[in-house]
Records
---
Amino acid sequence: MKMFRGKKVLGAIAFAAALFSSTAIMSTALSSSAMAWTLEEAAQPYKGTSIKAIFLDRPGYAAAIKLLPEFEKKTGIKVNYEIVPYENSRERQVLDFTGGGEIDVVLTDVVWIGEFAGNGWLEPVKTFTDDAKLADPKLKLDGFFPILLESFGTWGDEVYGLPFDNYSGLLYYNKCTLQQAGFDKPPATWDELLNVYGPKLTDQANRKYAFALQSRRGETQSADSFMRVLWPFGGSLLDDKFKSNLNSKESQAGLKFRQDLMKIMPPGIVDYDHAEAVNALAQGNVAMITEWSAFYSTLADPTKSRITDCLAVATEPAGPAGLKPALGGFSLGVNAQSSDAKKAAAWLFIQWVTSEEMAKPYVEAGGVSGRTTIYKDADIQKRYPFVQPMVASWDGGVPDFRPRFAEWPELSEVIAEWGTRMMLGNVSIEDGAKSIGAKVEEVLGQAGYYKGDKPLRK
Amino acid sequence: MAVATAGGTVPAASHTKPKRLVSAWHLVGLLAIFLFAVFPFYWMVATSLKTQAEALASPPIWVFTPRLDNYFEVLFNRDVLSSLTNSIIIAVSTTILAVGLGTPAAYALARFEFKSKEELWFWFITNRMLSPIVVALPIFLMARTLNLIDTHIVLILVYLTFNLPIVVWICTDQFRGVPKDLDEAARLAGASRFTIFWRIALPLAMPGVAVSAIFSFIFSWNELLYALVLTRNVARTAPVAATSFMSGYDLPWGEIMATGTLIVLPVIVFALIVSKHLVQGLTMGAVK
Amino acid sequence: MSSGTQPDGSGKPRVFPTLWNNGRAAFAFLAPAVVALAMIGIFPTVFALVNSFRRYNLAKPRDPTPFIGFDNYLTVFNDASFWGALGRTFTFLITVVPIQLALGLIIALLLHKPGLSGFKLLARLSLVIPLATAPAVAGLIGRLVFNRDFGVANAVLALVNAGPVEWLGDTTNAFIAVALMDIWQWTPFCALVLLAGLTMVPNEVEEAARLETRSRWQIVRYVQLPFLLPSITVILILRTADILKMFDTVFTMTRGGPGAATELVSVYIQRVGFRVFDQGVASAQAILLLILTIILARLYIKFVYREI
């Protein structure tokens, strides 16, 4: 599904237009150096360079693709992208890193940062920020939500990527259905969702269900389903010593809660991926879902959703341990194995697409920016109802919602397998948790965490 | 079963059914076979001609205005055209290579006497039964070292693991059917061994060679696992392209089925051409 | 054509013993194919064998890859998921193959029965379609047909007031759905192989039997079956090998899910090798599978090529 953009030559007019934007920061830049830093000038040596990016089939990437021509016109850098299914995207990139490949702009899921950075596959951002020719004085790393930069982009104390496609778990609901059932606000707690809202909104005979929790085997099961029910109940995957915490009272309570949810969810929920869950709400078959903020644009799109007038958004319900919403998202980083020219070109692209200046166009094109300032914009707040709950979630989220160490993908496979089997009732919650725990400890033991070889970093 | 007589029904035994009824059941059975075999294929083609809304309609729509939009979309915007081109290049090359290497070997197995012939022969057939995953792991590592990932050549070579056995087996059979006398007469006339093989035995064995070539082509064209592991986008084959639509976010069923149809249709044509030899090709000559 | 059995020196007196008893000439003809197959078959297998004794994870390029003896094999023996996948593969085998054989036999008998030649031709040609369909595409078709909401399987069930069935989201049903796709794809193969067997029954024998008995079953059982035994053996062994290899259909249809409900052994090994990237353990699993395959191939030779 690769698509190539035609080579575009920068125009003098675009150059001039760029000069007149954000004058306040410009003046400081002007005072510190004789000439202001401009993207056009910085890109001059890399004109004609083409770089390769890995994108997903999600709104945030469609938004970036819409903006691409502007970048290509300004810089003369050609950005080729390949859209891969999320489930194949880590595989695809790891094979590329280990087999020698052509990816320059690396897409790092929050849970891969430990693996990608730890293996030296990502170039530290410092390489570029130290280079006055490449670093935009307006870069402002502290302009990102701290939790996003920390979680998606940082490993150890080193920054490797800039937050690009940013998610918080949110509660999307059909306010018309809720009103008909006599609820004028969404459930505040998970318990309420199950016991108060659940029975009233579920009508099995007509195949209407209160809730859908996407649980398909894969990262969807481990991140969206399994981990989502641990944290709010005070549970977690690992304890402080990196031993399994799944058989603790709190973790078990969360997992048991998930089994109880099955009563108010469509049958076959273990085969629901994001597409199915979002579609179930969009078609009016399900009253509530907890999904990533990025799916707002799909749900609000009248060609894909029948409930645009009834769509409402809130933070995820709280559990006994408080509000612990799912955290997810992707940073863009530079492949450490790319040539210097491609590295520079890739950096210029990443810096541009995640910049404060591009935040508004990016959001308007359907993306979710990781910049704080954009969400203070009253106009944006009004037009995008998901903004407020999302910002609230990011202000109080768990940075290591899922451990981000290199072993996560392997653990995720284990959790995905046993988690779905638990839901299907093929194995009891307790035994399933034990099986996962044993395997998790085996993997982490082999990795050397218990011998003190490795810092306990997640 | 009724004994066929000119009169139509057989009155003799009490449990004998009238012939017309038997024929009716026979006809129903044959039509059931036809429906069973064709329906899933029909459903794929029908879906490929629907819009996304029609494809997702519940209950499914049976009558609709067919559109070719999905085909234009996948061929030109989704780049399935280049995947199909890759598939053709790879399948044709590996077939030529398999026939080029396999027919002399088949000739030798059919004609010559030598030690461990059985073992050699056994080894060929084992490859037919080998799970690709066994070879895919090390081949991936080797291809990586040799910088052959995402190239046509690596698939062309790897596909020999199943194509060579096909060619060797079908052609060994075929060569055995060619009388030795011709070879021996030619030898008396002073022809070299290679000339005998090339000018006499091979032309006579052509039907078998053609069948094995078509089977090699079909198997290579349909293969997924190796292609999934060994290609990325430059050498990506059509079956891999078909799976790449499954993004978990949006499933464009019309486009997926259009790609499926583009993959399957040429093979059906080929398979119909060799339908008489289908069994022989699939069992490698064990049953004829 | 000849008998189709394994190559042997027929008892015919040789006109030119030196012409065919020449090892060097045979070698010249065989060498290219043997070298090629050795390069892409044996060499990688040896490499896999070596890797199966090493700790080797592709996703951990900075870790050493020491030889660890039989540790990987021990891991495999203690891996419930691997044995689960292998067991599932055999369950799949004993589920689909008898059905394919039975349906195949019925189809073959219908195609063998005299009369209605036009319809018979049509039915026989239609059998080519499932066989020619790429297994990967068959899986995609399966995912569409068995969709819970807009799949045609549930629509057909609705006609008889049954369903809707949750096909791919339920452990048992997903297994059945994959099995149904496999039955669609491979029953024609069984039918055609059995049909070939039926045509070997001499006409006179069949006619004579029909005069003896009117029971269709008696004819099948005592007259036709003995001629079908070789075909059935071929089907059993090839289907066994194909199901051990089965990957494409499952990968595109369910990816082994839900849970591990449809995770057959080749799908599982692919997951370990290319998602967990544990080349050591995956190689050990692959070697075990290879051994199983060789045993089966030996059986193939013994029953099919020796005794027919």
---
Amino acid sequence: MKTERVSEDSLILQITIGLLFPFMLLFGFYIIVNGHYTPGGGFQGGGILASLFIARYVIFPLEDTDSEVLHSLQRVFLAAIMLVPLFFLFTGVVAQYPAWQKHYLTLMDILIGVQVGFGLGVAVLRFAFFQGSGQTWHL
Amino acid sequence: MINSAILVTMCLFALLAIQARLLRNAIIHLAVLSVMAAFLYMRIAAPELAVAEAVIGSGLVTLLYLAALKRNRVYTIGVVGNEKSKHLADPYMHHLMRTRALREIREFFLIREYQLQIVFVPESRAEALQNEAYDLIIEEDDKGIVAYTDEESYIMMELEMLIQMRGAQSQLRFERLQPPAEEQELQDTAGI
């Protein structure tokens, strides 16, 4: 007789999420890449990418994702989101060559999507693992 | 017409989510509510919002709630049957569920947001006590219901206090066991 166990992990959930995982990843990137002419875009696709992190936590609550690296990557993407429009708009590349507009929008969608995905994922992982343990982190 | 039907269904699921006694059910009802909202956005020609609602509302937020609920625990109560109840496990469980003591226990775990699971144990009491799958063993004898708990289980201490306060101790008695180290000894005396 053991007292106050944490509920065991379910094998059904593990296998199902394991099978769905690549398709969710693909769907997220599909929404991001096609964002400029179909519904969806960077934020929505990023939400799906972030839900992958949470799904993984719900199934295997292991603390092996390096959230420091994700956090740094997310900052790099945030910087790129600010710098890329500066480059494209102020140098007038998009105005000169209208054919580039599509590539510019796709690039921005990808940057926003990855940034939102990593950002929300890191936030959730930090909530999950640092809750109540007295650890803090700097922004 | 269809839009009104969707709106009514949304209200229904919102009420279900409020009235749900288990948090897990409330989360699923909220997810269905979000899917309905996404469908409604689709119908009034706002596909961009529909995608956002489906992704954030029913995907991300549902998973976030489930991750928060992951810290919740499942508590398993094993009911040891006596000689005549072995063949009639289901009616016996129904009879036991209606007793005041079991109702008090269920109320107690519901308030603390534990997922309670009450199962019938076909083995004898000594074997059930050895089994790690049960957190609490309950047995009915001629004087009432006996609950076998671990000595250091603080939840059981809380429950015992509550039962005494409610004045139901004539039905439910607690028997404290030693921690697992001395359990072998107890096993021997129970065998005799």
